[in-house]
Design goal:
alpha/beta, 7-stranded mixed beta sheet, 9 helices
């Protein structure tokens, strides 16, 4: 049977974009991620309210993203995996955020969402590509007779991980790892490569 890998982006291949922007803009309230708030819609409305209050434009966020580099070893891991099998990155980030990072990762396939701006370039909202897109994408791949291996680090990855044939937690928090102790947890790319390699050789 054909196989395919699905990976989360932030925390697995690149740093958390919102945390990087929060640090650069000195807005600590924006450090909240899906590790802290599992409800993505609630988290995004919280973020949008802060961006509106602070008068932040999309270009302000993109300027910071341009300075972000993939996590050390991420591109090498991704290159290795793409030689072995098909790879799709499933992320709750936005096309307008991810573009420069995708170039630095060698332009892998990415499914994500879109940010919305007003006429003056201020962030005004967001548009989901599909609700619970990570799970639904994995289920669609399985319906196409693929066996799916997935890796993620946070609560918004859980439905994807549970829908896959094999799942790996990558650098999870202790709480997330404890709540999902039936899934293997790895903390570096060597460990992730080993887990994926076992699945791909089956």
């Amino acid at each position: 049977m054909m196989k395919i890998a699905t990976l989360d982006l932030e925390g697995v291949l690149v740093p958390e974009i919102w945390i990087s922007f929060a640090d650069a803009a000195k807005i600590p309230e924006l450090c909240r991620t899906t590790r802290d708030e599992p409800d993505y819609d609630k988290l995004m409305h919280y973020r949008l309210e802060i961006l509106s209050r602070k008068g932040i434009k999309l270009s302000d966020i993109q300027a910071v993203i341009d300075t972000i580099e993939p996590l050390e070893g991420a591109k090498e891991f991704l290159d290795w995996l793409r030689e072995k099998t098909r790879v799709v990155i499933l992320s709750d980030t936005f096309e307008q955020f991810a573009a420069p990072l995708m170039r630095k990762l060698g332009n892998p396939v990415l499914f994500c969402h879109e940010i919305e701006t007003d006429a003056d370039g201020f962030v005004s909202g967001y548009k989901l590509r599909l609700g619970d897109q990570k799970r639904k994408t994995v289920e669609a791949f399985r319906s196409l007779n693929f066996k799916v291996v997935s890796a993620g680090d946070s609560y918004n990855d859980l439905s994807m991980l549970r829908a896959a044939d094999r799942a790996v937690l990558y650098r999870p928090t202790p709480a997330f790892a404890s709540e999902n102790s039936d899934l293997p947890a790895v903390f570096d790319y060597a460990g992730l490569k080993a887990e994926f390699d076992k699945f791909l050789k089956e």
